[in-house]
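Complex 368.
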Amino acid sequence: MRFYPEPDYSHGKIGKTAVVLLNLGTPDAPERSAVRRYLKQFLWDRRVVEVPRPVWWLILNGIILPFRSGQSAKKYASIWTKDGSPLKVHTEKQAVLLKGYLGERGHEVHVTYAMRYGSPSIPSVLNKLKAEGYERILILSGYPQYSATTTASNFDAVFQHYQQVRNVPELRLVKNYHDHDAYIEALRQSVLKHWQTHGRPEKLVMSFHGLPKAFLLRGDPYHCECYKTARLLAEKLGLSKDQYLVTFQSRLGRAEWLQPYTSNAVKELAQQDTKRIDVICPGFIADCLETLEEIAMEVREDFLHAGGKEFNYIPCLNESPSWLRALAEIAEQHLIGWPTMMTVSLRDEQKQQALISRSEAKRIGAPL
Ligand SMILES: C=CC1=C(C)c2cc3[nH]c(cc4nc(cc5[nH]c(cc1n2)c(C)c5CCC(=O)O)C(CCC(=O)O)=C4C)c(C)c3C=C
Ligand SMILES: [Fe+2]
Ligand SMILES: [Fe+2]
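Predicted structure with fe (ii) ion bound:
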């Protein structure tokens, strides 16, 4: 039996609970100057690039920012929507929906989101929560697989922020959920849904964002967590080892990154006479530049030019109901012990508040 705190009317007095969904962040506009600002903040993070600072300062400011900002801006322009960058649009919708899904499970929590780089920044969101009286904060990163470059960088930003705060709230941080049943199930449903309309491929390629190989050798568990996700998904789909392939994308710079590289792997598949592949990116919970442009455009071209016949990109989990259920389950497991359960007499009214958030979801066009 599950344990929930006694019905309690003092929520307002003893402080409220908030869940903060954290993701990477994105430029404010698909323009050179905005992309430069974003890349500068991102690539100056010591968790992301471990090159000694004076050397890296020269490379970053002398080569990378001048050349990459314009190129990346063009790529961003190709995926930008009327509401903004896909990553931000999806993250915002996920936060709205998560409140509704947690509300349906009986939890009275506020849900918001922040971005590690760009806006809304982690300090601005945590300051706002403090001003609004939230005294328990659950940090949930949009990275199923832990990496020092992403998850730990989120943690750094949260800790750094609270170093400046006298009265720090109670904090919990989720490290990973790469093998969580509900997450794997959401991925499985997404693949099956795709196969129901398009039939099955010869090979399912599972492409994860890459890392410098040196990070793995220094102890980053990301690589292993990606493989575990892939194995669990393959098992759930009943795929044998020759029916799927794990690859790593988005290599940057000259150093070796995790292999096999997605673009090389799909070319090889085409050369080996594989006619159709489907590509899924299980490490991204929301479509973004890396999936919509790199995979669905560039890698597609790589496969077709090398002789492949059919390429299908399976979208990220985005706002799919099975994913929002999974996210609610993951959050719930980390909320245990905090007095978030709606009280009996307040329940109906607060359930309605949860439903208001679902109607807000409808307004923004997210599926329920
Ligand atoms: C230079 C090193 C990089 C490391 C290490 C890295 C790790 C890493 N990144 C993600 C998720 C995303 N990355 C995205 C974009 C992106 N990533 C890098 C570099 C590194 N990432 C750059 C320079 C960029 C910007 C775009 C470009 O110029 O190519 C995104 C998309 C953001 C968007 O706005 O849509 C995501 C998401 C993970 C999960 C990860 C390590 C596990
Ligand atoms: Fe990245
Ligand atoms: Fe990329």
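Residues 6-13 have pLDDT under 50 and may be disordered.
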